Automatic annotation (TrEMBL):
Catalytic reaction(s) noted: beta-D-fructose 1,6-bisphosphate + H2O = beta-D-fructose 6-phosphate + phosphate
Alphabetical list of Pfam families matching this protein: FBPase (PF00316), FBPase_C (PF18913)
MF GO annotations: fructose 1,6-bisphosphate 1-phosphatase activity; metal ion binding
HAMAP family registered for this protein in UniProt: FBPase_class1
Record field: transmembrane: 21-40
SUPFAM superfamilies per record: Carbohydrate phosphatase
Ranges of residues in domain Fructose-1-6-bisphosphatase class I N-terminal: 186-405
Subunit structure: Homotetramer.
Domain Fructose-1-6-bisphosphatase class 1 C-terminal: 409-539
Enzyme kind, highest EC tier: hydrolase
Source organism of this protein record: Trachelomonas volvocina
Protein name: fructose-bisphosphatase
Amino acid sequence: RMAYNSFSESSVVERNSKASYTWALVAGVAVGTLCAVFTARPSALYAEVAQIPTVAPAVTTTQVHIPVARVMSASEVTNMQKHSAATTLNAGSASSTLSFPVGLGAVMVLLGSVVYNLLKSAPRVQLPLPKPLNSVVIPSAEKAVRLVTSMTDARTSVAMMTVTSQKKVVGIKSPVFNEYCDQTGITLSRFMLEVARANPDLQELESVFSSIQTACKTIAKLVKRSAIDGMTGLQAGGGAVNVQGEEQKKLDVITNDVLKRALKFTGRMGVIASEEEDVPVEVDNTMDESYGNDVLVEESGGRYISVFDPLDGSSNVDAGIPVGTIFGIFAEDDDCKLSEQFFEDKDMSEAMKGCLKSTLKPGNSLVAAGYALYSSATHFVFTLGAGVNGFTLDESIGEFILTHPNIKIPPRGKIYSINEANRNNWDAPMQDFIEGLANGKNRGKKVYTSRYIGSMVGDVHRTLLYGGVFGYPADTKNVNGKLRLLYEAAPMSFLIEQAGGKATTGLVRVMDIPPQNVHQRVPLVMGGSDEIDELIELYQK
């Protein structure tokens, strides 16, 4: 109310001030105009001259046969001089009569403007009142992560994340770059350095991303030279399979080792889980004895848990089709989503139980997620929970450069990426959804185009940049879907949602699914918010 009264008083003062300005201006103009009118009369000083009649000289014509020259008398010369003077006065009187009052009127108008400036009071500008602060209330949550994004100022976005109602709220500030080098741009190394400066709690994540980008550069080189270096084909000539029963390529094994070691060497990992391995493994972060004797080192004890698919789409690598690496980062905490009953019928060590408790978390517990795409260029796209940013590898300097800041997926695109060979094996809502996209009978009234690479990273990357839908739904052959929840579906869903899109199985949000095992598969459809909402409505009918 006080703010309202202050605003009302300032409004009254402002209106009174404007009225006084108007009257002062009118008064000045009126005075100048009246003075100009009154001074326009003939001046008394020149009244007599102005009233002298103009007499035309008489001309007498005398016919003479012989012209005779004569001398004028003194009286004639005097009369001629008087006549010339009278004519000159008559010619000058007209200009004098007009110029004097006009000049005097201009002087009076000037005096009127001076009077206006004297009467005018200095303007009073009311300072704007600050808007009241909006309090942010985060509802209590049980075994769930609620993510709310807001803007604290023009350049800093904050993602407020709470894991449970008892957890402390953590704010993630996006880095701010006031200047950068025109020759190098903003590198991934500098980006993460600024993240660590803005968020001291994430300093350890800087070294994690440094190792991940080193591994991705190495994998990019291996993929590019695979045919030259003889790394194509199946591992051990065939017969080597992973836990999912899939035959392993040579590059599957090599890239898994590269990424696993890079993460281990950070000293920040507590548990590492790979799609290529049967179970997650605990990382031994014991330091060399000499460190404790010579230097003071703070041991983190492995704060993070990493899950990854080292080479997604590896079945296509021999044909030169784009492939990629997918990763997700969880934070080590005591908020385990698994009950003790989960382990009752399982014969495993306490260490393995600890690994599973750390790893089997829903996607809404992710701290970071991203992928590297090895194609015509090497792209590195990731999120820390405050938007999505894309980097491109500049091979000339060996650095990832920020080329796609703040990626946003449009609510509706015009491309769908899905293996339509399985169309007859889908359930009815999925068939209707894809049919509607293909023939234009959808809420957007658009006819979509089909584009399918067969490599998840490549298809999702295009979907992020161009919009549209990517899907690998369940079918009669894979009733639980094909993609792994921990290694593929959850990290990619985190990226899509941070870019403004949505990801679902058709029935539930992918990010809310608690994993039952490290290699659990789920159906997945992701894309623009309008498109996914339309699919969910079809499943709800």
